Amino acid sequence: MTIPKYKRILLKLSGEAFKGKSRYSIDPKIARQISRQIKRIHEMGVEVAIVVGSGNILRGVEAEKMGMDRVTADYAGMLATIINALVLQDALEKIGVVTRTQTAIDVQKVAEPYIQRRAIRHLEKGRVVIFAAGTGNPYMTTDTAAALRAIEIGAEVLLIAKNNVDGIYSADPKKDPKAKRFDKLTYLQAINLRLEVMDSTALSLCLENKLPIVVFNFMAKRSIERTVMGESIGTIVTGG
Q1: Cβ burial 44-76 (10 Å sphere, 16+ → b, else e)
Q2: So where are the chain's domains?
Q3: For 47, which of 63, 72, 119, 197 is 20 to 30 Å away at the CA?
Q4: 70, 64 in Cβ contact below 8 A?
Q5: Each residue's pLDDT expressed in tens, for the chain with a length of 240 residues
Q6: CB of 203 within 8 A of CB of 195?
Q7: At 1, is the secondary structure helix, strand, or coil?
C-alpha cells in the first residue's frame, strides 16, 4: 500500500484556478476536477485544509488601481473568496466528501467562523476544511492567509497550486522563453531574488516556522496526489 509523504496539508488554490477556460468567473467543470483530486488524497488518509483566492472575481490591489478605496476593495475580495469556497464545498460534498467552510469575517448564514481548535477537530474527524476571507484584514493577501492557517493547524507542508505553471521560474515563463525553472530553493533565495512565489510576508512566516512550500501545476494529471506522495513535479522551497 502506498503511503503519502504528508499526513496534514494546506492547499492554496488561486482564484484563477476556478475560472479555467470559461468566459465566466467560475467554471463548474474545474471545480469538479479539483474536488476529484482532493477526494483521492482524502481517501488516502491525508487531512486536507484549503485556502482559496479571489482573482477570478476581484483583486483588491487591482480594484484600487481602478479608483476603489483599498480597504473596501480588500473586503470585497474577501467576500469573493467566500463565493469560491462555497462552490468548492458544493463540488466536494456532491462526491461524498464531508466539508466545512470557515471564514475570517462573519457570514454565519453560509459558513462557520474561523476557530483554530474547531478547524483542527474537523480535520481529525476526517473532514476537509476550506478557509475563506483571507485573514479577515485588509492589506493581507490570501498567500499570507495560507501560510498563517497552515502554521496554525500544524500542516506539514503548504502546497501552492498554480494554473498551468509547473513551478517557480527566474522570470515569467509565459513572457520569457529563457526563464529557468528551479527544482529547489531556500526561503531566503526566494525572498532575495524577488521571485513571484508568494508575497514576502507569507514567505517570512514560512521561514520563521520552517514550513516547506511546494509550487506545482494543478492542471497536470493527478498533480495534487503526486505531490502529496512526494513526487518531484514542481519546486520545493525549504530552509536549505
Answers
A1: eebbbbbbbbbbbbbbbeebeeeeeeeeebbbb
A2: 8-238
A3: 197
A4: yes
A5: 578 999 999 999 988 888 766 666 888 888 899 999 999 999 999 999 999 998 888 777 788 888 889 999 999 999 999 999 999 999 999 999 999 999 999 999 999 999 999 999 999 999 999 999 999 999 999 999 999 999 999 999 999 998 777 888 888 877 888 888 899 999 999 888 887 778 889 999 999 999 999 999 888 889 999 999 998 889 999 986
A6: no
A7: coil
The C-alpha cell at 176 is: 520569457
CATH architecture of 8-238: 3-Layer(aba) Sandwich (3.40)
Quote the pTM value: 0.92
Place of cell 478605496: 69
H or E element: which one contains 31? Answer: helix 28-43
